[in-house]
Write a structure and sequence with these properties.
CATH superfamily of the largest domain: Transposase IS200-like
Distance between the termini: 46 Å
Strand content: 15-25%
Largest sheet: 7 strands, mixed
CATH architecture of the largest domain: 2-Layer Sandwich
Shape: elongated
Oligomer: single chain
CATH class of the largest domain: Alpha Beta
Number of domains: 2
Order of helices and strands: HHEEEHHEEHEHEEEHEHEHEHE
Amino acid sequence: MDNSNERRKRWIAAHPEIVAKPSMKRRKEGHDYCGVAIYMVTLCIEGRRPILGSLKGPDEHHVMPWVYPTQIGLADKRAWQEIPQYHPQVKLLGFQLMPDHVHGIIHVTSPMAQPLGRLILGFKKGCRDLVKSMESQDDTLWEEGYNDRILKGAGQLDRWIKYLIDNPRRLWVKRQSPGLFVQQTGITIGTTPVTMMGNRFLLNYPEKIAVKCSQRLSKEEIEAECRRFLAKAYQGVVLVSPCISPGEKEVMGRAFMAGLPIIVLIENGFSPFQKPSGRQFEACSQGRMLLVAPWPHHDDYRKITRAQCDALNALARHISNNDFYEH
């Protein structure tokens, strides 16, 4: 019989496209990870093996999709709940178990002697210890490191909690419409190969128009542009824009909130496992949004350049003129 390490190696060898992809696990430069703060942390199973639970659809007992935990998942949840026993400065505000990863919200209420990373290492060790105590179970083998987000402003905590609660539903929607949430390649717009996510068939709408507004437009002029473009959108024209200038952002924002189909060009490409968040997720699931990226993903902040603005606007014109092809 294979031991757990051999099974793990075999699973990883069968999924090289998953294992080879990097994660966003950089710590924020200059931040005091011993100090008072609220974090949302994400930890993934090595190789993204779905050993923590299985996604279940709505049934007579559950109105929304949910995750049925395995014994390993239950052990990990128990280890999470035990964190305050070892770190009394910590208050746990949320936890969500997913098939191949976990999300948790941690409130550090007073300075800790060691940084957040040591707390995460302790949690991982607690998971391993609990799993090893169970007979005939695979070891919980976490990816190295973790991802953290630091609370910045009012209202963000509520959004985090809602995100955790909603995560099984989002995964369910993604699995029901897989083509809308995978990175799609094989399309060249003009002379530029792109990566896309969302409803690729918006490209085939018979009428599309590029939304381009000068940076110097007044509020009155922006309002006039909104009326002009939205009138076309309500007639069945798909709006296309990188949303750079205030006018473009206003036009596309109003079209988005009205539930109209739009194509948005973005400077930063898609990271591994990325899917749209928040309202963009809902728009993609409803088939009324397509995101188009001509360049690869980058973790660091980069101010968009004039050349990039020109390139994105040129792509919007190519799309509106049906100047693209599949290969």
